[in-house]
Write a structure and sequence with these properties.
Layout (H helix, E strand, L loop, with lengths): L1 H5 L15 H12 L2 H13 L3 H29 L3 H11 L7 H33 L8 H12 L2 H20 L1 H31 L2 H9 L8 H13 L7 H6 L8 H29 L9 H13 L3 H35 L3 H22 L13 H28 L2 H8 L4 H25 L4
């Protein structure tokens, strides 16, 4: 089967169906890319690294490093029309190299499973905070009370487990329904809803926050506050924010119709993803400055600092609810992309139904997630290597598996695949194609390697 398909790439079709339109694909990839990293992580990393200077470096990196690798992953996915493992194996043989390239696909699928195991736990926090917002638990609360609310919740493994279970169940239900009835319907609703909620919060930030101060902080470059570590953080955020090398983009690319422009779709996704990250900053920083809070407050910015701000503002209960619903939607769309590659592999490799595969993989991820659940309570003092179980899984995936996968994807698309294959998928062999080929062969791998070396302490 493998050799026959390798000799007839033009006749290859997806076993899971195709996206019904270019717009749906853009929504799906944008949904996968836009997650807690945009709304939770981007603002506080920018806050820690001088605001506008960081944003400029981030924008430069996202277009010259992130987008070329994302285009590579999409074209590999569409060329192979299979799950990431089978696609890399099939194309490795088709391009006259080695079937061992399948291990890059394996790396991406495993990374997606591990990431979702702890991502689901954090996403569960956002679900729980929707309930806390609705019931007005932030109203008039002091900083100490908000901090205690957060620590009491994360320290209660039963409450966190319930939220984790609910979030995983929601994710499994959508994936089990397939590409057209599940993924398409979900992203068609959630991604536009996410944008509407973000714009509503932007209006709130303009009305009740120190908006001019927030804009100044976001867009006035302070290069004196930007260190080399800040530059590497911008490069890393630009790479990770697009969900590259987690298997998600390759799996989604496998469902992309032949007539859809990969370049055009990628540009649209990058603009949408970056726009939402910047919108998140324009929502969060005015509220932070209006309440005299610290924009460099780290991960606590979302779960401690902002609830404190909402609790002191007019209409804070309503808009806090909108904010945490927004976070839940962002997390949910990303979780779908993380679960899909492993489910597609199980359906294709072991001939399971979508329902069976979704329950099996989702159940495995749910069980793995209890390591992260307990990292904040019962096993908080159980530390090794980089810290708690949660810390170790996060470090292993973000700092080792994803950069290695990204480098391999860039090398495969730029050096292993022939010019005819890549130009055929990108629909061009002109200046734009040559520029992409230069970036993916030289700049992107070297830049990602710098991020990798810095993450593991070699820089």
């Amino acid at each position: 089967m493998l050799s026959q398909e390798a000799s007839n790439p033009g006749r290859r079709i997806s076993l899971h169906g195709n996206w019904s339109s270019r717009t749906t694909f853009i929504l799906a990839v944008t949904g996968s890319a836009v997650g807690l990293g945009n709304i939770w992580k981007f603002p506080y990393i920018a806050g820690q690294n001088g605001g506008g200077a960081f944003v400029l470096v981030y924008l430069f990196c996202v277009f010259l490093i992130g987008m070329p690798v994302m285009m590579s992953e999409i074209l590999i996915g569409r060329r192979g029309r299979r799950n990431p493992v089978a696609t890399m194996e099939l194309l490795g043989e088709e391009e006259g190299s080695s079937r061992r390239w399948k291990w890059v696909g394996v790396l991406g699928v495993i990374a997606g499973i591990l990431i979702l195991s702890y991502y689901s736990v954090i996403a569960g926090w956002t679900l729980a905070y929707v309930e806390k917002s609705v019931t007005g638990q932030f109203v008039g609360a002091s900083a100490e009370e908000i901090g205690r609310l957060f620590s009491d919740f994360t320290g209660n493994w039963v409450s966190v487990s319930i939220a984790h279970t609910l979030f995983m169940a929601l994710t499994v239900v959508v994936i089990a329904r397939g590409v057209e009835r599940g993924l398409e319907q979900a992203v068609r609703f959630m991604v536009p809803a996410l944008l509407v909620l973000m714009l509503a919060l932007l209006g709130y930030a303009i009305s009740f926050g120190s908006f001019s101060e927030g804009v100044s902080f976001m867009f006035t470059p302070d290069f004196g506050a930007l260190t080399w570590d800040g530059v590497l953080a911008a490069m890393g955020q630009a790479f990770f924010t697009l969900s590259i090398s987690m298997g998600a983009i390759m799996a989604y690319g496998a469902y992309l119709p032949e007539e859809t422009s990969i370049t055009g779709a990628s540009i649209a996704v990058v603009i949408a993803d970056t726009g939402i990250a910047i919108l998140a900053g324009l929502v969060i920083f005015p509220l932070v400055f209006a309440n005299g809070l610290d924009p460099a407050d780290g991960p606590g910015l979302v779960f401690v600092t902002l609830p404190l701000a909402f609790g002191q503002m007019a209409g804070g209960t309503f808009f806090a609810t909108i904010f945490f619903v927004l976070l839940t939607f962002a997390a949910w769309t990303s979780a779908l992309g993380l679960l899909e590659p492993a489910v597609a592999w199980l359906v294709e490799r072991h001939y399971r139904s979508r329902l069976q595969a979704s329950i099996m993989v989702g159940g495995l991820i749910w069980l793995l997630g209890f390591g992260s659940v307990l990292s904040f309570s019962t096993l908080a003092d159980f530390r090794f290597w980089r810290g708690t179980i949660f810390d170790n899984v996060d470090y292993l995936t973000s700092n080792i598996m994803l950069p290695l996968g990204g480098i391999c994807i860039a090398v495969f698309a730029g050096w292993v695949m022939c010019r005819n294959s890549t130009s055929e998928e990108l629909g061009s062999s002109g200046t734009g194609y040559k520029f992409w080929r230069f970036l993916v062969r030289y700049l992107a791998p070297v830049a990602i390697m710098f991020v990798f070396f810095q993450a593991i302490g070699l820089l």
